[in-house]
Design a protein that fits this description.
The structure holds two protein chains of two kinds.
Chain A lengths: L4 H8 L14 E8 L4 E9 L6 E9 L2 H14 L4 H5 L3 H8 L6 H24 L5
Antiparallel strand pairs in A: 1-2, 2-3
Helix pairs in contact in A: 1-2, 2-5, 4-5
Chain B lengths: L4 E2 L10 H7 L1 H4 L11 H21 L6 E4 L2 H15 L6 E5 L4 H12 L3 E5 L9 H7 L4 E5 L13 H11 L2 E5 L18 E5 L10 E5 L28 H39 L3 E3 L10 E6 L4 H7 L3 E2 L1 E2 L12 H5 L4 H4 L2 E5 L6 H21 L1 H7 L13
Parallel strand pairs in B: 1-11, 3-4, 3-5, 5-6, 6-7
Antiparallel strand pairs in B: 2-8, 7-8, 9-10, 10-13, 12-13
Classes of the chains: A alpha+beta, B alpha/beta.
């Protein structure tokens, strides 16, 4: 199977690889997938508590090239968006941007799930620690 | 050194130039039909076919009359199993095979199950070997055929074929083996190994694609097989169809070369394989060998690189041709059933890579592959959340994953 140029680019030069402090109240962490299924994505966002804007995003992914590219692209898109805007990112946009073939659509679904999981985690923390906002 | 490097010799092999050279005149000069008995075009073609039959028979210790030409091992496997099932239907309806067989065996057996045959799929030991006691116990008075491959195409594990053949002989059951990965690579002898029927293919032993053979024993016992295609009654009535003369001539030459070179190639490939293995194991943590190293083809290495998914690994080493047991590289999106049959978890099956060394590989290539693998595995582990968790001491089996 041939990969699109954009998938190859993200695979070769993945953006925003890394981890942030999970315990930081401004950091939301989403981890989706399972090793038995062949892909696990960890996606983290750091939100500016005043503006509600995502100021940083990081990922680590175990999975195929398309899974790596989907999560790498997701971190690029997340930065600078508000949490509410980020909630609107759809997996189909990732499919289009990366020209993913049908068998790789699940990679984009996983990326969308990871974004939502990270935001949910952040919101949960924000409710738990309102004093910091 | 030329890139890309081909290290997928269990999938297919390069046709040896000497084989091609032998085949060429049979396209344009000696193009006759081997079944044409009344002119020289036919005679020359037939001579070519008969020489090939002898060359192949010599490689496996058979008589040339016991070689039936087919289009490849899938056809040979179908012919062997369906042909025996049909011919011996009155004697019994039970077939024994193993879970790690090639799909051409497993799917043929499934087909027969739908027709009322009973099939036992033996599980494997962690080593990849069939448990001989289990095999013995599985044989009943209804059993007509045991089909166990000589060497596995993924993990290269060589079965105890002579013992399996002996058990079958003692119980009066026919023994078929899919020999495609072993023949031409390691010594195979149908008499010593007690083999009644064996599938072969040319393209796994530096011959052309589209030509195979079935060894069918003629005495002690005389094996009979029902033809699966109706036609002109070629190949002693077992396989109709005009013979692929250039392909067969090439197959014969390939068999002759393998016979001549085996004593040199076996130790050479073993050294190369062991060197690759040692390099990977010494530079990378958390690597696992799949299948026993003790009973294994000298040119096979199957290794899992934990916490790195196989397809992404293949993508990183895109100037090297190898295979992975990862689901993402298969049409079914299921990880390798062979590795799972060894008791390997899906997580490790997803991270496996199969290396198959062949006649045209060099030491320089092996070193390049080793270095590249190390570089890419390390890079991808930096990217892997599982690697990070492993390094942090998290027990991954205790994590609640959101399976999808």
């Amino acid at each position: 199977m041939a990969y699109s140029e954009k998938v190859v680019d993200h695979y070769t030069n993945p953006r925003n690889v890394g981890s942030m402090d999970k315990t930081d109240p401004n950091v939301g962490t989403g981890m989706v997938g399972a090793p038995e299924c062949g892909d696990v994505m960890k996606l983290q966002i750091k939100v500016d508590p005043i503006s509600g804007i995502i100021e940083d995003a990081k990922f680590k992914t175990f999975g195929c090239g398309s899974a790596i590219a989907s999560s790498s692209l997701a971190t690029e898109w997340l930065k600078g968006k508000t949490v509410d805007q980020a909630m609107q990112i759809k997996n189909t946009e990732i499919v289009t941007e990366l020209a993913l073939p049908p068998v790789k659509v699940h990679c984009s679904v996983l990326a969308e799930d990871a974004i939502k999981a990270a935001i949910t985690d952040y919101k949960k923390k924000a409710v738990a620690a309102p004093a910091l906002v | 050194m030329k890139l890309p490097i081909y290290l997928d010799n269990h999938a297919t092999t390069q046709t040896d130039p000497r084989v091609v050279e032998t085949m060429l005149p049979f396209f344009t000069e000696y193009f006759g039909n081997a079944a044409s008995r009344n002119h020289s075009f036919g005679w020359v073609a037939e001579e070519g076919v008969e020489l090939a039959r002898t060359q192949i028979a010599n490689l496996i210790g058979a008589n040339s009359k016991e070689i039936v030409f087919t289009s490849g091992a899938t056809e040979s496997n179908n012919l062997a199993i369906k042909g025996v099932a049909e011919m011996y239907a009155e004697r019994g309806n039970h077939i024994i095979t193993a879970a790690t067989e090639h799909k051409a065996i497993l799917d043929t057996c499934k087909h027969l199950e739908k027709q009322g045959y009973r099939v036992t799929y033996l599980p494997l030991q962690g080593s990849g070997l069939v448990d001989l006691d289990m095999l013995r116990d599985a044989i009943t008075d209804k059993t007509i055929l045991v089909s166990i491959m000589y060497a596995n195409n993924e993990i290269g594990v060589i079965q105890q074929v002579a013992e399996i053949g002996k058990i079958c002989k003692d119980k009066g059951v026919l023994f078929h083996t899919d020999g495609v990965q072993a023949v031409g690579k390691i010594p195979v002898n149908v008499l010593k190994d007690n083999i009644d029927i064996m599938s072969l293919t040319a393209h796994k032993m530096y011959g052309p694609k589209g030509v195979g053979a079935l060894y069918v024993r003629r005495r002690n016992p005389r094996v009979q097989i029902s033809a699966q295609m109706d036609g002109g009654g070629h190949e002693r009535g077992m396989r109709s169809g005009t013979l692929n003369v250039p392909g067969i001539v090439g197959f014969g030459k390939a068999a002759e070369l393998c016979h001549q070179l085996m004593d040199v190639e076996m130790p050479k490939h073993r050294v190369m394989r062991d060197r690759l293995k040692a390099k990977l194991e010494s530079s990378l943590e958390e690597t696992y060998i799949n299948g026993t190293m003790e009973h294994r083809l000298p040119h096979n290495l199957n290794m899992s690189f934990a916490y790195v998914e196989g397809e992404s690994l293949l993508m990183g080493i895109n100037d090297i041709a190898v295979s992975s047991g990862s689901a993402c590289t298969s049409a079914t999106l299921e990880p390798s059933y062979v590795l799972k049959a060894l008791g390997l978890g899906d997580d490790l099956a997803h991270t496996s890579i199969r290396f198959g060394i062949g006649r045209f590989n060099t030491d320089e290539e092996i070193d390049y592959v080793g270095n590249k693998m190390i570089e890419v595995v390390n890079k991808l582990r930096e990217l892997s959340p599982l690697w990070e968790m492993f390094k942090d001491g998290v027990d991954l089996s205790k994590v609640e994953w959101t399976a999808h």
